[in-house]
TrEMBL record:
Keywords linked to the UniProt accession: FAD, Flavoprotein, Magnesium, Membrane, Metal-binding, Transferase, Transmembrane, Transmembrane helix
SUPFAM superfamilies: ApbE-like
InterPro entries: ApbE, ApbE-like_sf
Comment on bound cofactor: Magnesium. Can also use manganese.
Enzyme Commission (EC) number: 2.7.1.180
UniProt cofactor(s): Mg(2+); Mn(2+)
PANTHER family attached to this UniProt entry: FAD:PROTEIN FMN TRANSFERASE, THIAMINE BIOSYNTHESIS LIPOPROTEIN APBE
Gene3D superfamilies: ApbE-like domains
Pfam families per the UniProt record, alphabetical: ApbE
Name listed for the protein in its UniProt record: FAD:protein FMN transferase
Protein's organism: Prevotella intermedia
Amino acid sequence: MNNKTNKKLLWQLPFLALLIIGSIFIIKQQRSTPYQHNEGQVFGTFYHITYQSEQDLQKEIEAELKKVDNSLSTFNKQSVISKVNNNEPTNLDELFIEVFDKAKAISKETNGAFDITVAPLVNLWGFGFKQGKEPSKQKIDSLKQLVGYEKVSLIGKGIKKTDKRIMLDCSAIAKGYGSDMVARLFRKYDIKNFMIEIGGEIVASGNSESRVPWKIGVNKPVEDSINMNTEIQTVLNVTNKAMATSGNYRNFYYKGGKRFAHTIDPKTGYPVQHSLLSATVLTTDCATADAYATAFMVMGIEEAKKVLESHKELMAYFIYADNQGKLQVWYSPELEKKIVQ
């Protein structure tokens, strides 16, 4: 019996040796493959992308981002969403349909805190296409009649509105979706190590050039409308996750001694005013993280916690001001193991 076992082991040794040699070869090959670095402008912001590949795929990356721009950018007058907003005949593309369906689902889950029909109010407050004065209550109330995710629906390959004046705005989900599109491109090329960042919305996979998991900093919420302050509040291990952050500490303006944030509450029609300063969300895709981060900034920390209770696929890191104005943090218990510092 022992002789048979020994013979069997001896017969298996060459295959085991080949397996070890093959594994060593693959590891060496992976380590010798360079990391590419691409950056540029898109969606009115900047992108920074790092990935391990023999090929420089910037042209392919920009082609994917162009698809998103042609579908979802309100600043592109020929985009699908612009034609929908102008009530022009258009066939919706797959990108628009995917994002619209996701946006509607998240709107329902957040009871309208996330709402892609908020565009008229955003524009009224001066954060959209044109600058504006502080609007009157009468004007806000009139435009609120055009806001509500339940007032638009997908019929075949077209959008049905309850009022032709309703406008869609995907700015709170499009950057995240753009990061997802690039991640899909990389997976198609079998690229396993990458980090995609578009305007702060991130998808990370595998390891960095340092052969360690990707670590991403969350900015400390300091009033900084020109985006010069980069003080870090914490660092998170974001490998194999998507991450998005929304905050009111950078995008704001002062008028008449009042501070107005860029996040508009679709229900009240006014910029939000509560203690939550920054909401970071981690999940499996960046479009979802992007949308929920915006929703949480509208809802405030207590309502956001309730949503997190019923959505275990989401992890969040909140920075808020206490009654004395001091910065405090709250994060999902599952996120603790991802906090690096």
